[in-house]
Amino acid sequence: MPFESDVADYYVFQTLDCVVEIAHAVYHDLLARPEKYSSLDAARVTNLYEFQHVGNDPNWPTRELRESLFASMLGVSDATRPQPTTGSKFASLRLAAVRYSEASPNAPLTMLRAAFVDEVRASQKRLRTVSGGPFEVAHQVTKGIFERASEILKADVLAKVFGKKAPVTAGWPGEGADGEGALLINQITNELQPGTTGVIEEDTFMALQDAAKYGKDAITSVADEGYDLADDAKVIALITATYQWERALTSYRAS
After folding, report:
1. Distance between the two ends of the chain, CA-based, in angstroms?
2. Which tens digit of pLDDT belongs to each residue from 60-83?
3. Cβ partners under 8 Å of residue 201, min gap 6
4. 177-202 burial: b if 16+ Cβ within 10 Å, else e
5. What's the rounded Cα separation, in Å, for the pair 112 and 99?
6. Cα–Cα distance measured from residue 59 to residue 56, given in angstroms and rounded to the nearest whole number
7. What global pTM score does this model have?
8. N or C: which end of the chain has fewer CB within 10 A?
9. 191 to each of 23, 30, 36, how far by Cα in Å?
């Protein structure tokens, strides 16, 4: 996979890391109440039992280790509430997009656009300094645990255990809001009360999904050193994508 795609996916893994924590909570509930999960076949149960490796296997990093791995490249997660004073390493990029997009008619748009381009170049430079072997390994292990958690939670048979329907969006949870998936997440967190996530309301999870999706779209272009920043149309398109990302985060913070 190209570097820019890996970085964009990494942002999704960080922003929606609650999915891993929820799957881990389901595993512990399976141990405590196996009768609740009697409708699961052996293969599904085996997939859940794999979560016993969290913290005991390099390919199953703990929440604390995942946070540390993500932070080295991306900064503090955008999912963090309340928003920290020093947060995402993309915060200044998004701010530059907001300043351009919400500028008054008399504002110096050429200067604001140039300021955004400067932020893109600064992001590219920073991202490349943390590329290489360490990032490749971090991406591999966080992708593995994220995808295992996602496969467990989006299974129709697991959703039925909690009296809900499975998510319908292909690529769930990282491809934008999905109402059925959000209802499922809310039901599981209401019932199991995971200590690391608390109860997640439907609108909160959908807003977070949108933020992850818009962030992924923007970062794919930002991390691409071949992206033509001399082309005004492409710069405006990237500003628009970055602004959508910030607006989605604003909705999440308000939810």
Report:
1. 34
2. 999 999 999 999 999 999 999 877
3. 186, 255
4. bbebbbbbbbbbbebbebeebeebeb
5. 7
6. 9
7. 0.95
8. N
9. 13, 13, 12
